[in-house]
C-alpha cells in the first residue's frame, strides 16, 4: 500500500515538536530515508507519475497538474486536469505491470490516472455517486449521494476523511495486491499558511491519524501480516514573500494582449510554482522570439535563471521535438519568489504568508519523505538520500514483478521477496 501525503517536506520529520506518533512508529519499526528527491517540476502530478513509473518527466511527459493544451490563433494555453491517463502518461506504470501480471489494483484520489483500464477498484478525486465504492459508502451511511455530487465544494479536510473511508472500504471488501492512496490537506494548508506554520503542524497531525486509520484497518482485517506500507510525499515546500506575474512583462513588450480570460499573442508563460514554462504560441516567429524572451526575463527581480532547450536533459524535462507538452524556455524563481497566473498590473507583488513548491529538485526544501514498513521490510533501517524513481521498482520487487521500463532501482532493503511474477 502506497500512501502519499501531498506536500510533506523531508525536513519536517526532523522537527521533534511535530506530533506524528504513527509515522514515527513506522520509521522506527521499518525503513526511512533521510530524504527522497523529486523530479522536475516539483509539483503534484509529475511526481506522483514518477513514483508509479520510475521515470522522470522527460519520459512520462506530465509537466503540470493536467494536460497542457495549446489553442489555435495564439490564445493563452490551458491546463486540462480531467484527461484520460492514456493521453497524459507516456510510460508504463507499476499498476499497469501488476494488472498485466494478474494482480488486482486499487486507487483512491491518485492523479493522472483518470480512465485507467488497469485499475480494478477506485474512488477517484472527483467521485461518481454511481461508482461501486461510492455506492458502498452511501449504503453504509458514510456519505450521501448529494454530498458526493458536491464533493468539490466541500472542505479539503472532509475530502481527505472520505478518501480515507473509501480506502478502508476497499481494504475491507476488495483487498487488492496494490493500492495507491493520496491525501491533500497538507498541500492546501501549506499553500495558504506556509510550511511549518501552526496550521501546517495541525494538518500533519491530522494526516498521521489518517495513516493510523489505515494501519488499524490492516490489523483488524488480518491483512497486516502480509502487508507492506510505503508512505511517501511528492515534494517539499518553501515559504514565499513575493509572487511573479510573468505575463505582465510579455504584455509590456506587446507579446500578449487582452485581459484575463481573453489573452492572446506570440508567447505565454505558464506558472508551475517555483518554475514557469515559457511557450511560444506563434510558431512562425519562434526563432526570433527565443532570444527576445531570454532577454526579457534575464536579470529581472525574482528570476534566478532562464533555461533553454539545451538544458532540458539535465533538468529531466522533454524537449519540444519529443513532446507537445514541452516548453521553449524554463524560468527558475529565486527562493522567496513564486510564479503565479493571478491577474495583476505589476510584475512583482508581496504576499503576507503562504508557501509553494515547484522549485528545482536540487533545492533542499523540495525533498520529500519515504518510509517503508511491514512485510519484506527489515526493522530500523536508515537510508540516506534516495530518488522517487526508485519507488516503482521497489514496489515491483515486493510484488515479485519486474519494472523493466523504470530508470530507478529497487531499494536494497527488501527481504524475503516473492518469486518473479513478470512472466
User: What is the rounded Rg?
Assistant: 21 Å
Please estimate the helix content: 25-40%
Class from secondary-structure proportions: alpha/beta
- Low-pLDDT stretches are none
What's the mean pLDDT score? 95
Gross morphology: globular
The span between the termini is 23 Å
Number of E-state strands: 21
Report the sheet-strand fraction.
15-25%
> Which strand order does the major sheet show?
6-5-7-1-8-20-2-21
How is the biggest beta sheet arranged? 8 strands, mixed
Individual helix count: 14
Describe this structure in words.
This protein has 423 residues and is of the alpha/beta class. It is 30% helix and 20% strand. The protein is built from 14 helices and 21 strands. The protein has helices at residues 21-29, 44-53, 57-60, 85-88, 94-100, 132-139, 145-149, 156-173, 185-193, 198-220, 247-252, 286-297, 312-315, 391-399, and strands at residues 2-5, 31-37, 67-69, 78-80, 105-108, 121-123, 178-183, 228-232, 238-239, 242-244, 256-257, 264-265, 267-272, 275-280, 303-307, 329-333, 337-339, 348-350, 355-356, 370-374, 381-387. The strands form six sheets. An eight-stranded mixed β-sheet has the order 6-5-7-1-8-20-2-21, sandwiched between helices. A four-stranded antiparallel β-sheet has the order 13-14-16-15, with helices on one face. A three-stranded mixed β-sheet has the order 17-10-18, with no helix packed on it. A hairpin with a 6-residue loop joins strand 11 (256-257) and strand 12. Helix 8 (156-173) runs parallel beside helix 10 (198-220). The radius of gyration is 21 Å and the shape is globular. The two termini are 23 Å apart. The mean pLDDT is 95.
Amino acid at each position: 500500500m502506497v500512501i502519499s501525503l501531498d506536500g510533506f517536506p523531508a525536513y519536517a520529520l526532523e522537527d521533534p515538536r511535530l506530533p506524528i506518533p504513527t509515522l514515527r512508529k513506522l520509521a522506527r519499526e521499518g525503513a526511512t530515508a533521510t530524504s527522497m528527491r523529486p523530479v522536475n517540476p516539483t509539483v503534484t502530478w509529475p511526481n506522483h507519475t514518477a513514483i508509479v513509473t520510475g521515470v522522470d518527466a522527460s519520459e512520462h511527459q506530465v509537466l503540470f497538474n493536467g494536460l497542457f493544451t495549446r489553442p489555435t490563433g495564439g490564445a493563452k494555453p490551458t491546463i486540462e486536469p480531467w484527461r484520460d491517463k492514456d493521453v497524459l502518461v507516456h510510460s508504463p506504470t507499476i499498476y499497469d505491470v501488476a494488472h498485466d501480471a494478474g494482480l488486482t489494483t486499487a486507487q483512491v484520489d491518485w492523479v493522472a490516472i483518470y480512465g485507467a483500464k488497469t485499475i480494478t477498484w477506485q474512488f477517484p478525486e472527483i467521485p461518481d455517486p454511481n461508482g461501486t465504492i461510492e455506492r458502498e459508502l452511501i449504503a453504509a451511511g458514510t456519505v450521501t449521494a448529494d454530498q458526493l455530487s458536491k464533493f468539490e465544494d466541500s472542505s479539503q479536510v472532509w475530502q481527505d476523511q472520505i478518501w480515507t473511508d473509501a480506502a478502508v472500504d476497499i481494504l475491507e471488501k476488495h483487498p487488492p495486491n496494490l493500492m495507491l492512496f493520496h491525501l491533500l490537506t497538507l498541500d492546501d494548508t501549506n499553500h495558504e499558511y506556509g510550511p511549518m506554520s501552526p496550521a501546517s503542524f495541525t494538518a500533519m497531525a491530522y494526516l498521521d491519524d489518517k495513516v493510523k486509520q489505515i494501519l488499524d484497518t490492516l490489523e483488524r482485517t488480518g491483512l497486516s501480516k502480509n502487508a507492506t506500507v510505503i508512505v511517501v510525499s511528492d515534494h517539499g515546500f518553501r515559504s514565499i514573500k513575493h509572487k511573479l506575474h510573468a505575463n505582465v512583462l510579455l504584455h509590456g513588450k506587446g507579446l500578449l494582449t487582452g485581459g484575463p480570460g481573453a489573452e492572446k499573442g506570440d508567447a505565454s508563460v505558464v506558472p508551475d510554482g517555483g518554475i514557469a514554462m515559457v511557450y511560444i504560441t506563434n510558431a512562425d516567429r519562434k526563432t526570433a522570439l527565443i532570444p527576445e524572451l531570454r532577454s526579457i526575463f534575464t536579470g529581472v527581480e525574482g528570476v534566478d535563471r532562464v533555461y533553454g532547450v539545451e538544458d532540458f536533459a539535465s533538468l529531466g524535462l522533454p524537449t519540444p521535438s519529443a513532446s507537445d507538452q514541452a516548453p521553449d524556455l524554463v524560468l527558475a524563481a529565486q527562493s522567496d519568489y513564486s510564479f503565479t497566473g493571478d491577474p495583476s498590473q505589476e510584475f512583482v507583488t508581496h504576499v503576507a504568508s503562504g508557501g509553494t513548491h515547484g522549485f528545482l529538485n536540487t533545492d533542499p526544501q523540495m525533498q520529500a519523505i519515504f518510509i517503508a514498513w511491514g512485510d519484506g521490510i527489515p526493522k530500523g533501517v536508515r537510508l540516506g538520500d534516495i530518488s522517487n524513481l526508485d519507488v516503482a521498482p521497489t514496489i515491483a520487487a515486493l510484488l515479485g514483478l519486474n519494472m523493466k521500463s523504470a530508470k530507478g532501482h529497487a531499494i536494497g532493503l527488501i527481504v524475503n521477496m516473492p518469486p518473479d511474477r513478470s512472466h
